[in-house]
Write a structure and sequence with these properties.
- About 75% of the residues lie in helices and about 0% in strands.
- The protein is built from 26 helices and no strands.
- The radius of gyration is 27 Å and the shape is globular.
- It is mainly α.
- The longest helix has about 40 residues.
- The chain has three domains: about 250 residues, no CATH class; about 240 residues, no CATH class; about 100 residues, no CATH class.
Amino acid sequence: MVGVLIRMKLAVLRHSTSDSKMAMNSLGWSVGICLAVTTVILAFLDFSQPRMLMDVLAVTFALWALGWIVGPIFAGEPPLNGEHFHRQPIPRRTLAMGLLAAAMVAVTTAVTVVAFGATIAFAARLSWQAVVVSVPAVVLLLLLVVLLSRVVTLLFRALSRSRTGGVITATVTAAIVSLCSFSWVLMIGVYLLLEYGFPPTFSTVVRALPSSWGLLAVEAAGRGDWLWTAAPLAALAALVAALFAAWTALLGPQRLARPVVRGSSARDAVRRRRLFGSDVGVICLKELRTWWRDPMRTQSIVLGPAFAVITALFPLIFDFTAAFPFVGAAGALMAAATCANLYGQDGTALWLTLTVPGKEKADVRARQLAWLIVFGPLTLLLTIAGSLLHGDTALLPWALAGNLAALGGGSGLLIWASVAVLVPGPDPHRSKNSPMDHGDVTGQSFMMFFLVALAMCPALGVAWAGHATEQPALLWASVPVALLTGVLSHVLLGSVAARKLRDNGPELLHLMRSGAPASAPADEDEVGKSPFETMSAGRQTLMWAAAAVGIVGLFPQGLVAMGIKLNGSPDKVWFLALHVPDPWQWPVIVAMVLIGLAGFWTAYLVYRAEKARTAVQVAT
């Protein structure tokens, strides 16, 4: 059984991996090998603090375990899972052993073995007894992360179509995006920790994690304490056995929770009829219920604010709180970027709108209004709370202007993007377990992020003029300017979206049904493929490099440096603008913002060019 499943997995991978996916996998494997080698090198370093080496390895192993937990959730469906065999007369324990062996046959497993080899290197610095103990410690730790990954994936699958699952998915996604975007802050924090040592409480907590139990056993063996050598290994083996038992019990088809439809009383119905009596009101009520009940919408609700809050917490390493007032603006900006495919999320339900002629404008306005009702109070509350926590009202007009401009600009731009650059996705009842299987909206999100940020520029420009000229009235004038730009974006772009929905509704519905434009045959090989699947490795490298330049230039070197400058903090950290002479600091900040925006725009242009090229090939 083990050999059959391993050969089956290799065959599935061999026939399902495209060239672009192989290029991305190779890039990921290269990064993983570099990280694994770096982990081993850490075991040979000498630190000023005696306990520092143990703490650094414990933190590193915890991060590897976290990667194994989070990675499979967002990598899509695994090549083999228990659902593929639920009709076969195979005992669950036998199936679990075979799937575990198949899971071990992977490049990621080999890379992780190299990383966990740091345990053996650490033991070699202690004694030969510690080296002997380190070998079973590495094996148990590898089994731990693989089984933990599989159990968490199955539990996530069970939650994937619930609102709770949507909240968990969005929070984890926000943490990953924020960590990737602002990991430079953590690097500075790590540098400070390495210089002054880990706090005792942090050290105790990280050593208590199961990923550190092998290190505890090796350390105890090095000093000859055999009780503390055997106890962590026994506990690790027991945890591995418990995870294997849990995985065995979870294998097979998962019973999905049925959606609960709550009724309402006649009095509530009359009240709603008064409040939502018009066409816009009725559709808005339907949209609000969708926002509340659909797990995909729940992810969108949580993702933007969670990203903003997590990002604002990073600078606390330096006791820097000037980012707090902008949590609401960042949340609105991210919410607009992640909600720019409203019609695509609804699937072929678009036909319900098209079968009622003349209701396209009401549908568009209702979706805009529902989005504002969901995110308006939430982001404004975050702005007020962040300003109160920061304690300095000097940044309040900046934060309010940015928040209002992001809300107004986002409400217009997202509905326009939902129609103009609709990305087909599965109907809600066919939703997959992984959030990466709901349609490729990466290019759409990049475009929306850039456009909404551009819509915020007039209001923030007025605020900057008021600050530069030291005129408080002009500074506060940025708030009505933000309202004006928001209203114009909401009204004008909403009208454009409604007109396009009316004129091109059948073509959009065909796109939703077949995944290809109406002019293209549905049986072409390129139909349904995203630009990431057809893009060459060179173009992908260019696109992601431009996105990285955009992230670094716009956020840390641009906006964060601007916040430090406005706050009057003497900290320069590693921001280029704060290290140049004072007269040149503002021009450098502006240049960094422009470089960041240019990076995002370049990444979008590469994506759009590939998408257009694919569409032309399919059409011809």
